[in-house]
Specification:
Helix content: 40-55%
Structural class: alpha/beta
Number of strands: 25
Bound molecules: glutamine, zinc ion
Mean pLDDT: 97
Shape: globular
Number of helices: 28
Strand content: 5-15%
CATH class of the largest domain: Alpha Beta
Oligomer: single chain
Distance between the termini: 87 Å
Low-confidence stretches: none
Length: about 750
Amino acid sequence: MSNKSFIVGFPRIGEKRELKKVLESFWAKECSFDAVQKVASDLKKRHWLYQKEAGIDFISSNDFSLYDNMLDTAYALGAVPKRFAHLSGEALYFAMARGSEDLVAMEMTKWFNTNYHYIVPELSLEDVYKLDATKVLQEYKEAKALGIQTKINLIGPLTFLGLSKRVDGKDTYMLLDKILPLYVQLFEELSKLDKELYIQIDEPIFAKDQEPKILSLIKPTYDKLSHVNENLHIIVMSYFEHTNEATQIFTNTPIWGLGLDFLYGKENLSSLNAISSSGKKLVAGVIDGRNIWKNDVQKTQELLEQIAQIVPKENIIVSSSCSLLHVPFTLLHENKMDPQIKDWLSYALEKLDEIKLNTTLFAKGKNGLSDAQQETLKANQKSVANRKTSSLIHDLSVQKRVADLQLFARKEPYEQRIKIQKEHLGYSDLATTTIGSFPQTPELRKARRDFKAKLISQENYESVMKNYIDECVAFQEECGLEVLVHGEPERNDMVEYFGEQLKGYGFSQNGWVQSYGSRCVKPPFIYGDISRPKAMSVDWITYAASKTDKIMKGMLTGPVTILNWSFVRDDLPRDAVSKQIAVALSDEINDLQKAGIKIIQVDEAAFKEGYPLRKAQIKTYEDWAVRDFKIAVAPAYAHTQIHTHMCYSEFNDIIKTIEAMDADVISIETARSGNELLKIFKATGYKQEVGPGVYDIHSPRVPSVDEIVTQIKLLLEVLPKEQLWINPDCGLKTRKWEEVKPSLENMIKAVKIVRSELAN
Ligand code: GLN
Ligand code: ZN
């Protein structure tokens, strides 16, 4: 008997980020669109061949994209917002993605709980949709020409609508009647391609809680699509969570198979009976598609056997848990990594072999493996065993310290602390500050790079940084800011900077993952128990403090954000890892205050990003995320003021959780929404102080004094002056000094105007 192997989707940015490079040069008008297409077609070819060579049975077409698959879908359906109506072809496509001089780009948002961002389709009742199947058909034919018969990947109609927005704010599902006929038409066109075809239709929307009304759309939609032509085999794919409610319904439609994620949606196991009795194929997501750890083959075989106790073995297809888009391309180019650590990892290319190996082992047992596979299996068992015991990972002193932890929160309640702080720090109402970073200049970047490459001495490097800090401090004093920052010149990235100094953290050379369009990120990874060999920020902050009589605010990244922006080890629960980070940070906070730093900001930019997809899991997440923020700041004296910063302001659902974090001051991103989003703070009786950003730092525009006055007055309509801080929306590192200087000067002038009006 032979089981088949399956890849949900493959990364497209390229082994050496070829796609990124050609796109960016096309956008800069340095090459033609033909050049882009040439690179794209080479990449697709290469990627198909890699998968074929690895022996994967189900290889996708249409998983490629020049920007994003949701955008591709909108484009194929002719779901083009009015403002782009005069454009066509690639000009239209890229304008939708990125905007142009006079056209605002479409919105972009996170793809479920990953760090990939998709373009949000904008739909309207007046839309006239029209199918353009060129890309879908073309990719299939390109692969076919190489002798590879692909399955065709599509985003399902229900997920497409669920992730779109209506320009008038109404329900997008009302448009199903208009969209579905286009899918039918597309299926008709596809059915002409070959005698037998597989279509993977992604419906991850059901990994979130859905109303019965939405669930009720499944049956009619998929009855209809399944009946277009019997040569089409539809596989409905989901990932990132269980889809039990939807799965029940899908098993009652004529689709061919269902794809489920058994790693991030373990509860999918309870759908196995329904799948079994429906006789459908099961694409079993058992190889982690979104993390970088080498597969534990034995564990995966156990999981597959568990599934096979209910679903007939011949109906099981072995798959990645989701598209490999979320992991880097290959370990081949990681030649600076500790070989022991590298041996624990697996990127997209390596995962192909893992899937094949698991498939063969599952189908035929050990004796069915080739000699090479036997060797791989042995090596696999060895590295799995090594990971279980390696002293690089397991640090007993960290484990003991975390287990014995006594201090979980600050001793004094907020009401008591704030009185002490106001007296001790003596800041005014509407106190002014910034979020931490000042412009990152090319000279700073160069100095950091050169220092890392050992091209300049420590002394030289420090003097560049210190000069910059001097300038930042001098500017802030001149400008009249009240609580100063050092400007973060030494930090390339708010997670990497701390990760590099923590034990248990690893870094890749080439671990790029697509974040959106041509943008890639290289997340660090946590492989072992986390500890802090020495203070990480104290020298810089105390240096800055020595340059002024004003209050110098210390600056750290919080435990939850450090966790959410890293690849996290899979041999410990996430919350256990987060707790270790929190303990390490608590030492840093203690060191800062002992060195005389009176205000410390602990950034939690990604606190909200970590929210689970399912409501049932939210409380657990909130409990440990809040617990760990509190652990990190627990050693703070009553008179040490703890700030936090979050890069958003929609707190309506989570305001009580934010309050429970017990920070003395929170700065948030509200400039683009007036005082609307602040109202929840008042409505719920939020006690702590708040610094709602008074201008938007995401644009180079310098806000006028008047504008900021108006904004501050709007804030004062909601919260009293004693509870408000005045600051920009976020850190200033992406801006230029020419923008930052006048903007902050205007901010200070505006505060003075408002204060004097309040005094009269
Ligand atoms: N302190 C950081 C900065 O100013 C905060 C950035 C963030 O939260 N994204 O850059
Ligand atoms: Zn921010």
